[in-house]
Write a structure and sequence with these properties.
Elements: H1 12-28, H2 33-45, H3 49-56, H4 78-116, H5 125-145, H6 147-173
Helix pairs in contact: 1-2, 1-3, 2-6, 4-5, 4-6
């Protein structure tokens, strides 16, 4: 008995293509993060082509560059905005631990100085100074070489793999 294409079972590659299209739609601003997450879970749980098709039915096939709506001249492009956000996340990751360590050391120094009544030698400079100099060199080389963008792409792939695993687990559990 011949079945229509919509009734045929979808392969992992088909689900991966649907997930990639959903990611593009998220990057273009066509989906919110919540919608993306829900649809991504549904995509990896989909069994037939019709289930995958219904997830993508309201999304245009064409990328944002060929959109019929002209972008505003002063607003940054979606790629520039994503790139800035990626660089911001990368910088927060690189400098976050340093900032926490320096703040904790300065608080300890201040508590010791106030407890003794005099200002004690500012020793936190030896914690934050050399480490900060190394991080500054890493930041400059990372920004110039594009390493920050590559690392955030790796993080995104990890997040996508995690979302796929979660969707498979939920599909196995039946909810």
């Amino acid at each position: 008995m011949a079945k229509g294409r919509d009734e045929l079972r979808a392969a992992d590659a088909d689900r991966a293509r649907a997930a990639a299209r959903l990611r593009v739609a998220l990057d273009e601003g066509r989906l919110t993060l919540t919608e993306y997450d829900e649809r991504l879970q549904q995509a990896y749980a989909a069994k037939t082509y019709s289930e995958l098709g219904s997830l993508l039915a309201d999304l245009p096939v064409a990328p944002a560059e060929s959109s019929q709506i002209a972008p505003a001249g002063t607003a940054p492009s979606a790629e520039q905005g994503a790139s800035r956000a990626e660089v911001g996340r990368w910088l927060a990751g690189v400098w976050g631990a340093w900032l926490i360590a320096v703040v904790i050391n300065v608080i300890i120094w201040a508590a010791v100085s106030l407890g003794s009544g005099d200002l004690v030698y500012f020793w936190p400079i030896w914690v934050g100074g050399p480490w900060g100099a190394v991080l500054l060199a890493i930041t400059i080389s990372g920004l110039l070489s594009g390493k920050s963008r590559r690392l955030t792409e790796i993080d995104q792939r990890r997040a996508d793999r995690w979302a796929r695993r979660q969707a498979r687990r939920q599909a196995r559990r039946g909810y």
